[in-house]
Each structure stands twice: as C-alpha cells, then as structure tokens.
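Summary for the steering committee. One of the milestones for this cycle was to obtain a three-dimensional model of the protein with zinc ion bound, which we needed before selecting residues for the alanine scan. The sequence and ligand used are listed below.
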Amino acid sequence: MQCPKCAKFLKLSDISEYQVKGTQRHIQCYHCQTWLKNSGVTLMLKVIAFYVCAISIGVGYFMAEWRTITTPIAIMALIATLVSHLMDQWAETEAPKNYQSKSSSE
Ligand SMILES: [Zn+2]
C-alpha cells in the first residue's frame, strides 16, 4: 500500500503503530508519522457484497431453477464488491484517542 501524504510505499508487516477497532483501522506511516485510517463502513460493505456474491453463485450452481434470480444478484454484488474495494482507501487523520504507543510502553 501507499501513504497518501508522502506517497511512499508501506509494508503492513513493518508498521509498528496501529489500532484496530472492529473494521475501523488506524495505522501510522513510518516514513512521515502521519496517522491514516480506513473507512469501517466501506470495508463492511465490501465483505457483505463479497459474501452475497459468493452465496448467490453457490445457490445458482446447485439449484438451476433459481438461476434467473441468483445471476443478476451475483452480478450486482460483484459490482458492489469492486466499487467498495476502490472506495476502500486510506485517509489522513488524527492519532486515535486514548492511543498509547506500543514502542514507548515497552
Ligand atoms: Zn507517509
């Protein structure tokens, strides 16, 4: 992934400062110390759309009489998955509240 502030590439395995709350993630760029966050709603939408797509393909495969319904649902869910994947970007933000640095607490 790429930092939107300094445009340098980040390796997720090298990030030491982060906070995860459900689908809402905060990370700190180790080049410019900028805090970045993703949209928890977008990530949730992506996961839901992916499973709707997978389930309707599965139902359509095993139950041929359902295919007229499941095929358009699968196509719409696939589009929703791709769109929400494109919308799932990191944005600049403040450091999360009540955040304690992992490196300084050790
Ligand atoms: Zn950066």
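Key point for the committee: The pocket of zinc ion is lined by residues 3, 5-6, 8, 29, 31-32, 34 (CB under 6 Å).
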